[in-house]
Amino acid sequence: MLNRVRSAVAHLVSSGGAPPPRPKSPDLPNSTSAPPAAPPQAPRSPPARAGSGSAAPARTVEARASFCRPTFLQLSPGGLRRADDHAGRAVQSPPDTGRRLPWSTGYAEVINSGKSRHNEDQACCEVVYVEGRRSVSGAPREPSRGQGLCFYYWGLFDGHAGGRAAEMASRLLHRHIREQLKDLVEILQDPSPPPLCLPSTPGAPGSSDSSHLVGPQSCWSSQKEVTHESLVVGAIENAFQFMDEQMARERRGHQVEGGCCALVVVYLLGKVYVANAGDSRAIIVRNGEIIPMSREFTPEAERQRLQMLGFLKPELLGGEFTHLEFPRRVQPKELGQRMLYRDQNMTGWAYKKIELEDLRFPLVCGEGKKARMMATIGVTRGLGDHNLRVCSSTLPIKPFLSSFPEVRVYDLTQYEHCPDDVLVLGTDGLWDVTSDCEVHSSGPSSGPRGPGHPPGPWLASPQQQAGFRG
Amino acid sequence: MLNRVRSAVAHLVSSGGAPPPRPKSPDLPNSTSAPPAAPPQAPRSPPARAGSGSAAPARTVEARASFCRPTFLQLSPGGLRRADDHAGRAVQSPPDTGRRLPWSTGYAEVINSGKSRHNEDQACCEVVYVEGRRSVSGAPREPSRGQGLCFYYWGLFDGHAGGRAAEMASRLLHRHIREQLKDLVEILQDPSPPPLCLPSTPGAPGSSDSSHLVGPQSCWSSQKEVTHESLVVGAIENAFQFMDEQMARERRGHQVEGGCCALVVVYLLGKVYVANAGDSRAIIVRNGEIIPMSREFTPEAERQRLQMLGFLKPELLGGEFTHLEFPRRVQPKELGQRMLYRDQNMTGWAYKKIELEDLRFPLVCGEGKKARMMATIGVTRGLGDHNLRVCSSTLPIKPFLSSFPEVRVYDLTQYEHCPDDVLVLGTDGLWDVTSDCEVHSSGPSSGPRGPGHPPGPWLASPQQQAGFRG
Question: Where does residue B96 rank: exposed (0-12), middle (13-18), buried (19+ CB within 10 A)?
């Protein structure tokens, strides 16, 4: 699969950022289809299509099916059983048929190591068509201009405390992104700078951008330049938030217990947007060089954000936690002694006299894989977890978990690529046992091996990588 | 002066991180003095010396003299008058006598361009001796071990809204650093890892570091490794905070109006610590390569921190400001239309319907040099400003200003240096008109020139660089 992804990246570069080819198959489009002469049309798949008359297409009922593996695995009932066989740890990958994933995407997962009954992870791969909601300028749409946008989408969802959040995200997050992009269809296809202000209704006059400035010498005199790229980033950021809010609203009716890390890639108009909320990781291998496309959000990495929130909103700590960090747990008998600490502002350490409230559990503790927030969870961003409480307490974790991703942008048109170049997405299960360089150097013969590993190379894979440890 | 600094850096490298030479002169030590065989002793200068019987040496009265230029300029009354001559814009630099600044430090400043009556900036250059407060382990001090530490110190203080804060910082901040280091004298000289917990009183037994761990599998089972370096960072961070708190306490009695950006360098035990709170900048030029040693803290750079504070503590916005950012000022007639915005979580932009509260002033507005926080101030970190209010309002600015610096560490023992290598500190007045590369390539003949510029090269200089614009 690695080869396939490598060639896929090369294929994309050779297309020079042109609109992606129209998929033959709605759910599993064939990447070998020729680029269309006209702008791409909507895939025929109802789930991936923006129904123009649908008020809330991201909430369609059929999108919330029962537990399963990613649809592109095309698992038979027997395959689904094997995917849950903890003893065998079978590796799952898509069948090597003519219905390949777009961009020659590769995929591999192994069943988990017994932590949970089901594999709580999910993945998604779609080609999504975005039809403009309306003419944002108020003018009638010109027939000659493209009426929609198409983006490629890949998502990895590392579930925890249940698989529903990851399932829901894998079915709906790309639709939230599509919803956010609907208003931008015309703007993104117009080379002029995006309008800062839009009319409330189509047909009403919009505001001029430079005629309302106050005081030429004041800080109001300038207006920020907003790029097309930053609009896409904002659309993805808000899509994550809306996805999370939907989980909060519907968590009882649809049993959306648990949460998930989300790592998604959007390819749109020549640029790759990598959005990460959690501890998964994406890298691009370009001419042997590794380009990090994400960073992991853990209690250690986000210590100061968490401490600042606990400091400013102490009620969120419920009298059970202290926002200060100590290098180890403070003992009652150490009251009055001086221990190293750091607060929300510090990167260094200093000694402080231990007081009674320092005996509370620290908001952030531990190191590496053992690092925890509120002694409960090892990631600090993601979707869901609206019911998550501190162990043996009613204190909610969610206020400290952020659903916002960090989005990095890679302009494919700016770089030379070779056939071996590849974009790799993996959850922590992969990166715990495989370094960036190992992934880079892994090929069909050099890739990690384990029980049941298929004879080909591999690419993105959800959390449970136990099979690769052997 | 550039050459002198270049040779000074080379000199330091050749000493391999050994304790700095004992200065001959207390205030302006001669860098050519030979390194001592024994650990360095305290300079004779009362201001720079840690009086062992002084309970609060950082608060001595003589340290708060009236307005003047940096003492190392050794200005005569006539020179002091010329330093205030806005028309002539004389460049001030230390006299080229035998009493050179340590490390062959160079210094240049020009008078300001009329923004204020006095030059509001200050600078400081000291060799500071730190005597241990007591034996931290509780055991009697061994006579054979070094009893103190010496650090080199350089500070640039870019004042605004009055010069008192910069003056006070230039006289006292290094003493706060010394105070913070007093507890660490023995620990920093002991190669074993710093103790995590110290007894409350000398002689009392300290806690063992690994015998109080709870639950070997929990996040408590690990204890963080704390380095000597991170203790020095913590000491500098807290020194900035204590300096700021002192300004708050004494602002009425000592007329500490205004505030200042602070950029300081501490050289201690082979490492250079660069601490920055404000929009000054430090770079190291090493073999022609430029290594940034700071970043500027402006409303644009700290937008998300400021917005998060305004979001979590809306009372700090007083109903006058919105925590949202807009690319330009929203007009009342645009109510109901949709304008681009971003909140504390977003890096991208999205459209939102304009509501009544969006008409408030944005917390952060403008770009580049015109960027302002609360329409008032263009920096977001620094010391002082405890009386600063929003223009035409009683709303305090201070809660959004942070006194904490970012500290970067450069290990001089890890790199090869050549005689041209140099550490350059400059306030925004320098960097507004001179790029990193220009500073790097500037020599006696190639340096920036302007009215009154001296015929030699230059190094660190406070804000008013109008003379270099010509």
Answer: exposed
**Residue for token digits 């709906």?**
A172
Across the interface, whether the CB atoms of A348 and B221 are under 8 A apart is answered no
**Closest CB to B327 among A180, A200, A226:** A226
Q: With beta carbons under 8 A apart, name residues in chain A contacting B313.
A: 312
Say what the pLDDT of residue B417 is.
87
B179 Cα to chain A: minimum distance (Å): 12
Predicted confidence band of residue A359 (pLDDT cuts 50, 70, 90): very high
Q: Which 8-state DSSP code applies to residue A42?
A: P
Neighbouring-strand partners of residue A422: A285
Answer yes or no: do B346 and A238 touch at CB < 8 A: yes
Integer Cα distance of B299 and A234 in angstroms:
20
B81: CB partners within 8 A, 6+ apart: none
Domain boundaries, chain A: 104-133+147-190+228-294+399-443+455-465, 304-378
DSSP string of B132-176, one letter each residue = -SS-TTSSPPPTTS--EEEEEEEEEEEEESSSHHHHHHHHHHHHH
Q: Which of A215, A353, A248, A367 is nearest to A303 (CA)?
A: A367
Taking the CA of residue A59 and the nearest CA in chain B, the distance in Å comes to 22
Q: Tell me, what's the ipTM? A: 0.80
Mean pLDDT of A128-155: 73
CATH number for A104-133+147-190+228-294+399-443+455-465 (one of 3.60.40.10, 3.40.50.720, 3.40.190.10, 3.10.50.40): it is 3.60.40.10
* pLDDT digit string, tens, across residues B136-159: 555 544 444 558 999 999 999 999
| Two tokens, residue A437 | 């360089």
- Is the pLDDT assigned to residue A35 strictly greater than 50? no
